[in-house]
What does this fold into?
Amino acid sequence: MTRKNVWFAGLATPVMITMLLLAGSTSVTANDQPSAAPPAVKIDNFSFGPQTLTVPVGATVTWTNSDDIPHTAVSTEGVFKSKVMDTDEKFSYTFTKAGTYPYFCSVHPKMTGKVVVQ
It folds into this structure.
């Protein structure tokens, strides 16, 4: 073997090992990514945030009262109704049908929001 052939032979082994390792590695798919945070509405400073939330059918939305004042989340169409939530209390509802669901705070009716279910 010539000096040039010995160098290529020595290089071939690490290259082959790397190729074999890569061939056996698994690929990352979208399903392996961490899931997005569950849909949530934060009640703070006399407002719902976000004011409009878009979710897929079957999603469970959780409202959390982060305000120092009691609030509610009440559907204008009677679909859901929370109890009065004190600070840090939560209310959840699962949306099973597509549509737009406007809601308000029954304690402070000027506070409004909506959930759009697609």
User: Anything to note?
Assistant: Helices lie at 3-23.
